[in-house]
């Protein structure tokens, strides 16, 4: 199953699912053809939710390590008068129409995601940069990375691989975990994703975008934390288990 879940806690818990969208003039389907089901993977491009090609549901560059099943094919006449061939693919909850030349036969290459000191630093730097750009656009001061909070977030990310919740398997809240390490903080965002992004920079960019713009299901709790005037610093931790990526951000 492939999905994205994000939770935030400071006075409550919510969930958010990330779906990008766009709009254009509808394409006209000229012909339809069923294909023998086969494994394929994406090199790039967009995944459209319907054969009208009016709404982008996913960015293909985020799924280059995901194996899809190909089911059918359509030839469409686009609004510019040109014809194009699109194929329908699916992997768990991620599904839709993709231009055929963006698909490659066979299973996707394995993800090279590993949690190393260098990768963690890359992710932390990118996340902080993207978040502070959002804050700057709203006239807010920049958050700073706090090493002590990073240590707590690293522990919390590992705990998420066992129980994806703000309460860990021992029944401790994140704030109790922090206090046991001598660190006080006041809010936490957690994220659960598959390891299909093309780079750690892409992970950070997608995560910040999800928190800021696709957070309605959590009543915008993640966004409120990231754009708060009450906090000044954060810690960022990452962990991987069974092909899934877990991140925790703790704010003070």
Which architecture of the largest domain would the CATH scheme give at its second level? 3-Layer(aba) Sandwich
Order of strands, widest sheet: 1-10-12-11-9
Radius of gyration, taken over Cα atoms and rounded to an integer in Å: 20 Å
Compute the number of structural domains. 2
Give start-end ranges of low-pLDDT stretches.
1-6, 10-23
Our estimate of the beta-strand percent is 25-35%
Domain SCP: 128-250
Pfam family, one: CAP
Protein name: SCP domain-containing protein
Summarize the structure.
With 252 residues, this protein is α+β, with helices and mostly antiparallel strands.
Question: Could you describe the 3D structure shown?
Answer:
By secondary structure, the chain is α+β, with helices and mostly antiparallel strands. It has two domains: 28-105, SH3 type barrels (Roll); 117-251, CAP (Pathogenesis-related Protein p14a, 3-Layer(aba) Sandwich). 25% of the residues lie in helices and 33% in strands. It contains five helices and twelve strands. The protein has helices spanning 117-137, 147-160, 174-180, 200-213, 221-226; strands at residues 5-9, 28-42, 46-48, 56-59, 67-77, 83-91, 94-99, 103-105, 144-145, 187-194, 233-241, 244-251. Strands 1-10-12-11-9 form a five-stranded mixed β-sheet. It has a five-stranded antiparallel β-sheet with strand order 7-6-5-2-8, with no helix packed on it. Strands 3-4 form a two-stranded antiparallel ribbon. Strand 3 and strand 4 (56-59) form a beta hairpin. Helix 1 (117-137) packs parallel to helix 4. The protein is elongated, with a radius of gyration of 20 Å. Residues 1-6 and 10-23 have low confidence and may be disordered.
């Amino acid at each position: 199953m492939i999905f994205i879940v994000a939770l935030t806690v400071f006075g409550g818990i919510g969930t958010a699912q990330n779906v990008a969208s766009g709009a254009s003039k509808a394409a006209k389907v000229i012909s339809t053809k069923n294909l023998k089901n086969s494994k394929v993977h994406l090199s790039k491009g967009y995944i459209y939710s319907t054969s009208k090609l009016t709404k982008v549901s996913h960015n293909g560059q985020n799924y280059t390590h995901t194996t899809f099943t190909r089911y059918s094919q359509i030839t469409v006449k686009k609004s510019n008068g040109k014809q194009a061939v699109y194929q329908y693919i699916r992997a768990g909850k991620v599904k839709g129409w993709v231009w055929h030349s963006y698909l490659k036969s066979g299973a996707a290459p394995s993800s090279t995601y590993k949690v190393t000191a260098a990768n963690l630093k890359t992710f932390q730097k990118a996340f902080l940069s993207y978040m502070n750009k959002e804050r700057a656009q709203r006239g807010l001061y920049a958050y700073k990375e706090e090493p002590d909070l990073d240590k707590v977030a690293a522990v919390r990310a590992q705990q998420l691989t066992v129980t994806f919740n703000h309460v860990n398997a021992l029944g401790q809240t994140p704030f109790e975990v922090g206090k046991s390490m001598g660190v006080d903080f006041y809010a936490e965002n957690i994220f659960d994703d598959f390891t299909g992004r093309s780079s750690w920079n892409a992970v950070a960019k997608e995560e910040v975008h999800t928190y800021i713009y696709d957070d309605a299901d959590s009543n915008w709790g993640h966004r409120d934390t990231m754009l708060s005037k009450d906090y000044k610093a954060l810690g960022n931790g990452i962990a991987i288990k069974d092909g899934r990526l877990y991140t925790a951000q703790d704010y003070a």
